[in-house]
Amino acid sequence: MQYSFAERTKAMLSSPIHFMRSLSTRESFISFAEELPAEELFPISSLEAAAAAVISKSPAALQYGEPQGYLPLREWLCKDFQERKGTDVHAGQVLLTTGSQQAMDLLARVYVEPGDPVLVEQPTAPGFLQILKMQGASIVPVEGDAEGINPERLLEEAERLKPKLLLVSPNFTNPTGILWSLVRRREVLDICKSRKILIVEDNSYGDLHFGGIGAKAFYREYPSLYSLDDAGNGGQVLHIGSFSKTVVPALRTGWAAGNKKMIDTMVMAKQLADWQSSHFNQCLLHYLLESSTFNIHEHIRMLNREYETRLKLMTELLKRPAWKHVSFEVPRGGMFLWVKLPDALDGVALLKCSLDKGAAFLPGSLCYPNGGGSGYIRLNFTHPGRDELLLGMNLIGEAISEFTARS
Fold first, then answer.
1. Burial profile 319-340: b = 16 or more Cβ within 10 angstroms, e = fewer
2. Is 380 helix (H, G, I), strand (E, B) or coil?
3. What residues form DSSP beta bridges with 337?
């Protein structure tokens, strides 16, 4: 049969990620390409106990739930916002979603018309770019520097285009790992306030920060745009996040927090999309978070220690001869290292050679909406174990050596 697909499907990003995922099941294949946490650090025993307890004590957990999400879990999130981030949020301002990706998708559905100009950091997360393209947005990249998105360029584009939306990730931007300064956060918020531009703030990686700094101290020094906007009461910021990077991805539990009018509208879109995210998963997660045998804050501190060790190992491996002509900035948190390749070396061409050797990474071009980025690659340092890190980096290094030898 000849199918007549909707015109918007042509906007889907053609990505090698799906191909790499099919290869990842191959024995000894090592991927630095995806946004994955370390499986060996999952709290397996605590999850097993929580699942058994929820099923035995509350069969209603297997029933349909509310589209906005399990109220006790939303209340737990509000308490966590207040205790760790100094931000007062009401449960009615929170929507539970199937990961942060769905939070962005729901927002795009209710807020972005085809042709609407949407500003994004350059470079930015490939998954979010795909959502915006599917919605028909006109994606306008805004360059930045080591402190975050460039306020002068943001102001220029805001005045030229009158956009309704800005998508940013101030805490360890995907893919660059940049941590915005407090001054830059205030500048960007002021620009968007004065021009009535909604900010979508992705904080999926904010809890993964290194150097031994505690969560309270971190969020005092680097408050979210959402906090600076009076926790959604200002109506300027939609704050999205997820438990995927800190507990386990398979629970598929993320959230959006914002002005109640925006959340209520997204709840209606949520009902049309899938009625609700898994009620059982939300009940299980809430039981886990309230369990006396599991402390989410200690768990995150453990993750941060291990991920910092893996990052240090990766940066040491980047000093080896095969990598000597690359450049990078060491991030203070997150999951990625953004690497500039030697001159004239293309990330997609390098990937093809690297795949043949059994290792993968994300080409930088997938993080640029309108072309560019061919001289960069994104490396995930959280998922591969230390032995895999060593082997995988050596394999990619071999591919680089082959290309540079030819030139």
1. eeebbeebebeebbbbbbbbbe
2. strand
3. 379
Name beta bridge partners: 140.
119
**3-state secondary structure (DSSP) of residue 198:** strand
257 strand-pairing partners: 94, 239
Compute the radius of gyration of the chain from its Cα atoms. Answer: 21
pLDDT band of residue 143 (cuts 50, 70, 90) is: very high
Tell me the sheet residues that pair with 95: 256
The CA distance from 3 to 1, in Å, is 6
Query: Does 16 score more than 60 pLDDT?
Result: no
Identify the bridge partners of residue 338 per DSSP, sorted by sequence position.
378
Do residues 202 and 125 touch, judged by C-beta distance below 8 A?
A: yes
Query: Mean pLDDT across the stretch 292-305?
Result: 96
User: What are 372's two structure tokens?
Assistant: 């560019």
pLDDT at residue 21 greater than cutoff 80: no
Q: Give the largest Cα separation in the chain, rounded.
A: 66
Which pair of tokens denotes residue 173? 């931007």
The token duo for 190 is 């002021």
CA 95 – CA 93 distance, rounded (Å) = 7
CB contact set of 56 (below 8 Å; sequence gap of 6+): none
The per-residue pLDDT of the chain, averaged, comes to 93
Which 8-state DSSP code applies to residue 98? S
Contact call for residues 122 and 166 (beta carbons, < 8 A): no
Q: Show the tokens assigned to 48.
A: 């097993």
**Residue 121, strand partner residues:** 142
Peptide bond into 369 cis (omega under 30): no
- How far, in Å, CA of 112 to CA of 122, rounded? 20
Question: Would you state the torsion angle of the CA atoms of residues 94, 98, 101, 106, taken in this order, to the nearest 10 degrees?
Answer: -60
287 token code pair = 């039981």
pTM: 0.94
Q: How far apart are CA 325 and CA 316, in angstroms?
A: 14
Amino acid at 350: L
What is the C-alpha to C-alpha distance for residues 269 and 275, in angstroms, rounded to an integer? 9
Question: Rounded to an integer, what distance in angstroms lies between the CA atom of residue 116 and that of residue 318?
Answer: 41
- E strands along 206-251, which residues? 237-242
